[in-house]
Structures are given as structure tokens and as C-alpha cells.
Amino acid sequence: MYAQRLAIPVSRCLVLRPISARIFSSETFTQGLHTSALRKDIDSAAKYIGAGAATIGVAGSGAGIGNCFGSLVIGYARNPSLKQQLFSYAIMGFALSEAMGLFCLAMAFMILFAF
Questions:
Q1: Which residues cross the membrane (predicted)?
Q2: For 36, 67, 80, 84, which has the most beta carbons within 10 A of its beta carbon?
Q3: By the 8 A CB rule, do 58 and 97 touch?
């Protein structure tokens, strides 16, 4: 009655249903599955920002590898008799630094393609 005075179609008015009818109606389930285009854009932007932030670790890994082998060259120049021991330490540092870079890259791909 009130909706007719405001010239609002009755189909746009709030229709109260019993609780059991609202819970088990098929409208309720299908309405929750739709997302707006704006929400999808925000989600995809967040994915790209997160993946970009995760790939910063790959650059850090490259800097760590360069630092490791640079220190190897300096150490070998100072004491050539420790070549074998210094090289084993350098390889261990390289492996740890490279592993961290690969973990960062794997996390970036998981953010992009798994979520």
C-alpha cells in the first residue's frame, strides 16, 4: 500500500518471507555466487601487487650470490692456500641464497595461479 503511493513497483519492495523459506530458497544460494566486476578487478590487482612484492626476493638472491662469490675472490687473493675450504663455503652460501630466491619465485607463482 505504501509502495503504491510512492509509485514504486511492488516487485522492488521488500517481501518478508518466513525464515525457513529464505534459508532454503534457490535464490539465496545463487545470489551468493556472483561477484561484481569491481571486486574481480580489486582481487586481480592485489594478486599482481603481491606477486611483484614476492619477486623482490629474487633480486636479493642475485645480490647475495654476487656478494658470496665476490668474497670468495677476495679471500682467495689474500690466502691462496685456503682455496678448497673457501670454495666449499662459497658453494654453501650460493646454494642457500639461490634457494631463498627460488622460494620467492615459487611464492609469486602460487599467488598468481593458485589463489
A1: 45-74, 86-114
A2: 67
A3: no
The reported pLDDT for the residue numbered 40 is 85
Q: At what angle do helices 37-54 and 56-78 cross, to 10 degrees?
A: 0
CATH number at residue 74: 1.20.20.10
25-50 pLDDT per residue, tens? 555 555 555 667 788 888 899 999 99
Q: What is the dihedral of CA 99, 101, 105, 111, to 10 degrees?
A: 90
Q: How many helices (H) and strands (E) does the chain have?
A: 6, 0
Q: How far apart are CA 82 and CA 84, in angstroms?
A: 6
Q: Specify whether the backbone of 63 is left (phi greater than 0), alpha (psi in -120 to 50) or beta.
A: alpha
Whole-model pTM: value is 0.59
- Residues 19 and 98: their CA atoms lie apart, in Å, by 58
| Domain containing residue 36 | 2-113
